[in-house]
Amino acid sequence: METSDGQLLGDSLFINQMKTYANQFEHSETPFLIQKDRIWVYVNPAARKILEAEEDIIGQPIWNNLPNELHSLVEERIQTCDSGIAPKPSEQTWITQKGNRIQLEVIGFPLLFSTHATQIIIRNLTQQHLEKKETLDHLKLITENMIDIIGIVSHEGIFTYLTPSYFWVTGYTQSEAIGTTPFNLVHPEDRDRVIQEFSRMILEHVPLTIEYRYLKKDGVYIWLESKGTPISHKDNLSAIVASRDITKRKEAEAALRKNEFKHRIILDHSNDLICSVDPDGNYLYASLSYKNILGIEPNSLIGTNALNCVHLEDHDTVEKYIKLVASLENPLPLIYRKMHASGHSVLLEGKGMPMVSDEGDIEGIVFISRDITEKKKADEYIRNSEKLAVLGELAAGVAHEIRNPLTSIKGLFSLMKNSEIDQNKIHLYNDVICDELHRIESIVNEFMALAKPDATQYMKNVNIIQLLQDTVMLLTSEANLYNVEIRLLFKEKDLFVSCEKNQIKQVFINVIKNAIEAMNDGGILTIAIEETADQKVKLIFVDNGIGIEEERLKSIGVPFFTNKEKGIGLGLTVSNKIITEHKGHLKVESYPGKGTTVSITLRKTE
């Protein structure tokens, strides 16, 4: 009876101490339990939640929450705690009140006020294990389906692991390859280099990236790019190696090098000046033709500004052109001058093309320029030839036009010899003589201006109205010979365009003469001028001559094609070229038996 009373007294004391001690864990988020004699004597709310204990489990055996395979381990750990020693934390599988298995981290401590009780802290690892398993499943799925080869190679150079992709790439199965060395399949010319790099990676513990040829099971070599990373596990050195088949890339690079070699030969032997500049205008490349055409070593230009070689007077023009190309516009070819190393200028015709990145950014500009000095001379020769032909035809008309006022002047001088004539008539005759002489002077000046050989000229602001009127005056006598009336349907005013005066006059003469000669039996040539909304001037020449058949109209402007019995057929060819060089447009429309309309569009001076 004394023993029972003592035991009851001890149990009561334990319960009071346990309640006081456990009270501090009642509202804690840390799951906390106490067992005594393999019976749960305290479980806080956080632990009840993990164990899915909707009913009170205090007083129930702890074995209800532990699978049979854990009983001996847990018993051993409890006894360790009873002896006053706290075992290391361990991962255990417990069973909830609902029968679900959960993964827990379990930490047990001896209870200070009782040698037969253990306090326990648990942490739920179930979600962590699920996430870990899911990650491992994903990794397995990736490695088993990836195209790249992932392998583990021991420090002796032996495969210890390979992904299934090794078979897809090389034709060797995993069982055939694991336990063998990959070095035996490396191309003999690459083998020593690969072994040396692998050894250096293992010894110096540094990663490597290497490209080499590898023998497939079918006897064909492929190119592999391998990236190795050294690893150490339990003092065993090895490497994870990721390999990728780069055969197609190597073939593409070889083809690119071959094409690049061909293009380099073409560039180096081209007679054109070919260069590329960065967005700031600095040379990135210059072809060997710079030496032949400009006397400049191409390599000396790299890094310098492209404008350094451009004639000072053309700097602004070239800068504007570069801006147009950089803004992704497509301007017409540019005629400009570059300076030869000896100091003289070289006339060039150039075209620029932007180099655009995949993101749409301008990375630079490529220029192709051609020396047109000789071509310019040939063009001038053709123009002068055409001009001489025109002059020959004009000579008779001009002579006729001059003869009329000379006859008048001669007659007036005869009258003035009469001593009986009064002074008033003499003054009148003098005025008439002066007017006739002025007319002769104007005709001769226009004729001489046309006959004068063209020097190299530059664009000037020219009054197009005045220029057209002067040209009509020059051709009036020829129009009279053909009984053609020239009507000007525009008011006299100042209207300026930027042009080379004599060249545009030559165009007007060619067009007006063609119209006059198309009206053998007489007719009317109407000339009108329109100002368009886009800052352009349109000159329209309309005749009511014989017109041009549709088939012949297609050949208009083709050199040496002509409808005339005489002539060499260069008039409209030269005219069209002149207008094009002025960034204008020449258009011919004709209807057989009704007449022809020629329209010329030029830019107004801004």
UniProtKB/TrEMBL annotation:
Entries under Pfam families matching the protein: HATPase_c, HisKA, PAS_3, PAS_4, PAS_9
All copies of domain Histidine kinase, residue ranges: 397-606
Source organism superkingdom: Bacteria
Gene3D superfamilies listed in its UniProt record: 1.10.287.130, Histidine kinase-like ATPase, C-terminal domain (3.30.565.10), PAS domain (3.30.450.20)
Residue ranges of domain PAS in the record: 135-205, 259-329
Catalytic activity: ATP + protein L-histidine = ADP + protein N-phospho-L-histidine
Residue ranges annotated for the PAC domain, each copy included: 208-258, 332-384
InterPro entries: HATPase_C_sf, HATPase_dom, His_kinase_dom, HisK_dim/P_dom, HisK_dim/P_sf, PAC, PAS, PAS-assoc_C
Molecular function GO labels: protein histidine kinase activity
Listed EC numbers: 2.7.13.3
Keywords: ATP-binding, Kinase, Nucleotide-binding, Phosphoprotein, Transferase, Two-component regulatory system
Name listed for the protein in its UniProt record: histidine kinase
Species of origin: Fictibacillus halophilus
Lineage of origin: Bacteria, Bacillati, Bacillota, Bacilli, Bacillales
